[in-house]
Amino acid sequence: xxxxxxxxxxxxxxxxxxxxxxxxxxxxxxxxxxxxxxxxxxxxxxxxxxxxxxxxxxxxxxxxxxxxxxxxxxxxxxxxxxxxxxxxxxxxxxxxxxxxxxxxxxxxxxxxxxxxxxxxxxxxxxxxxxxxxxxxxxxxxxxxxxxxxxxxxxxxxxxxxxxxxxxxxxxxxxxxxxxxxxxxxxxxxxxxxxxxxxxxxxxxxxxxxxxxxxxxxxxxxxxxxxxxxxxxxxxxxxxxxxxxxxxxxxxxxxxxxxxxxxxxxxxxxxxxxxxxxxxxxxxxxxxxxxxxxxxxxxxxx
Length: 301
Fold this sequence. Notes:
Residues 1-32 are annotated as: Disordered. The chain is α/β, with parallel strands linked by helices and 301 residues long. Among the domains are: 61-116, no CATH class; 117-260. 39% of the residues lie in helices and 8% in strands. The chain contains twelve helices and five strands. Helix 10 (241-253) links the parallel strand 4 and strand 5. The longest helix has 19 residues, at 25-43. The model is unreliable at 6-11 and 271-301 (pLDDT under 50).
């Protein structure tokens, strides 16, 4: 014969207590209290009916610090520099949730997130942000700017009329970047080339944009004395006037100059510049090869 369950035994015991008391108002109150006490004492012995064991929390901070740093870098670091972009809410904002987990997590992660390269001025591919009044660095709080170690200055976008935000005034916040060590400069085009003749606008010469870029570089050097290395990469030749002007200014300031991977890859036999851009495309099609005497082939019908 099957034995009754403890739950049924508890209910039966509570009912027996109720039946054992009279039906007067005073006794009914005592009856209810006694029934609750009996049910509580009997149900305490009933084991949990859950079929799966309880999930134990993972003690993440018990991991070695080296392992935690690797996890942080895997989650927080991006392939491209941080910039104002319409897709940040999908690719950047979810990563920032990690900083809000706890005070200790914030202390260990915010330096890693802001150690990646931050673009000083928005790229023209990012739509409305290109003409913003407040670049990304201006929007970052000062205590986070102190953790930035590398910034990128992209030159060439909007060369005919640079946006008003492309300046190194105090509002940009460079003076707060006390740990900044590396400046990466990428030159997309050099408007001093003859191909831009007639497109520079009224009052502009071949040297106008070069002077503008040198002023930006000088402003960065003046506000960031901790800067040590300047890396220059480009989609133009290494002997382009803009690159030569930037090189002169970096060497004059005493900073370490490093050429980027594109310029290194395009170099041939020392300092000979490689073919790039349109010239590279023409070379691939063989349009720049010397014209040889045509070969005449007779075809019989």
